Amino acid sequence: MDYGIVSLRSNGMFAFLPLGQRVISKLVALIDEEMRSISAQKLSLPLLTSGHLWKITGRWDTTGQELIKVQDRHNKDYVLSPTHEESVTNLVSEVYPLSHRQLPLRLYQTTSKFRDEMKPRFGLLRCKEFLMKDLYTFDDSEEAAVVTYNEICNAYDRVFQRIGVPYLKVAGDCGNIGGNFSHEYHYQAAIGEDTLLLCNACGISTNSQLVANPDDVSCTKCGNQLTKVTGIEVGHTFLLGTKYSESLDAHYQNEKGKPELLQMGCYGLGVSRIMAAVVEVLSQDEYITWPWILAPFKVCLITPKKGSKEEGAKPWVDHLAEYISCMQGFQNDVIVDDRDKLTIGKRVTEAKKTGYPLIIVVGKRACETVPLFEVIDSRSNKVQVLSHKLLLNYLKEVSIEQ
Ligand SMILES: [Zn+2]
Questions:
Q1: pLDDT band at 124 (very low <50, low <70, confident <90, very high)
Q2: What whole-number distance in Å separates Cα of residue 118 and Cα of residue 137?
Q3: Does residue 278 share a domain with residue 325?
Q4: Largest CB tally within 10 Å, which of 144, 146, 228, 288?
Q5: Ligand 1 centre and the CA of 220: distance in Å?
Q6: What local confidence, expressed as pLDDT, does residue 216 receive?
Q7: Is 28 found in the same domain as 156?
């Protein structure tokens, strides 16, 4: 992926270019909306976490070489955080007293995370620095934590439904916590690194990591033979219990004023990974296709070529740009390709490759007595020639359909 979306800066590290940054901002805004709907509050934790906290939970030693450890000038240890359970639990443990009336508490952030990948690959899918939304929840009982867990899973479902790319939700690896309280969200793709087992009969699905012998499996519920697919993991939900609150002394005060351990959950969405994965799933050859809701711009307007007969139609571009970017569903979502030394044909091809869903050409026919405009839907390659009025009606319809 390049196309002014991202740029590889060094092995496993990418810059988001202006168009890519717009996609990321749209995705973050969509996630923020769904987080607000479940009363999750956004904060921002330092990217460096004290190594001391990671030593307390034991993860300083158990995480392995993927953990990036750094020291300051006083030889104090830090972790360039891949995740923030230690950091956020330590923060909440210092809120004293935290009353049971203040629960549930749901805190999240969207920040860079770090992992020292041995072999960064597949561009943004596996790299050393990536953007992740991580949410941490605190409840006063196991039952309440399960209610929270289900609410968050529903919010994640809404995020993926609104993106609109078919996804799979499977039972994930719970480690030694037990129960069925870890789920993974995947996009099905040939380059996916996870193997998923799906039951077409009863709908049960799991990550093959959970199965002792993934080569010979039938559904534990209905006995049907399972189907194997590969997926790109883009989200993970986890009921943690008291694993972190216990080691980091995070309590709340119950009705009798006595301290009790907080019941926790943690939930991640790979923001930069979702961007890369939807492109992987939807796109063909060198043509990007974006989900409507994430396209960097929804409309690309192409101006007449400089020195051409149709140059006189240029005022139409300014008018359309202004009008459309005020229309419901298109606010500030119009880009004008005014590189008027290039032919219209070349710019249309580039616009299709970048994946702007709608391309409007102001060319020869805009000079006719009744000006006409060419509209290309780059997702279906459907081309229409429409009058000003019909063009605006068409845009309204497309926006409502999405
Ligand atoms: Zn089954």
A1: confident
A2: 31
A3: no
A4: 288
A5: 7
A6: 67
A7: yes
Q: Indicate the pLDDT class of residue 17, thresholds 50, 70 and 90.
A: very high
Range of the domain at 338: 297-401
Cβ neighbors of 307 (< 8 A, separation 6 or more) are none
How distant, in Å, are the alpha carbons of 24, 32, 36, 394 from that of 28?
Answer: 6, 6, 12, 29
Residue type at 264?
A: M
CA angle 356/361/365 to nearest 5° reads 160
Burial 377-390 (b: 16+ CB within 10 A, else e): ebbeeeeeebebee
Count how many domains the chain has.
2
What is the 161 CA–ligand 1 centroid distance (Å)?
24
Cα 396 from Cα 260, distance rounded (Å): 55
Give distance in angstroms: CA of 219 to centre of ligand 1.
Answer: 5
- What CATH number does residue 334 fall under? 3.40.50.800
Alpha-carbon distance of 268 to 71, in angstroms, equals 27
The chain-wide mean pLDDT, for the chain, equals 92
Q: Which bin fits 382, alpha (ψ -120 to 50), beta or left (φ > 0)? A: beta
> 358 and 275: one domain?
no
| pLDDT tens track for 279-306 | 999 998 889 999 999 999 999 999 999 8
Residue 44 contacts by C-beta under 8 Å, 6 or more apart in sequence? 109, 111
Question: What separation in Å is there between the alpha carbon of 268 and the centre of ligand 1?
Answer: 27
The predicted structure's pLDDT at residue 83: 95
d(CA 388, CA 378): 20
Ligand 1 centroid to residue 269 C-alpha, Å: 27
The pLDDT of residue 180 is above 80: no
Q: Among the three residues 254, 282, 310, which one is the final residue of a domain in this structure?
A: 282
Ligand 1 centroid from CA 225, angstroms: 8
Residue 288 domain-assigned (yes or no): no
Only one residue has tokens 């499996």, namely: 217
Distance 218 CA to ligand 1 centre (A): 8
Looking at residue 322, what is its pLDDT?
96
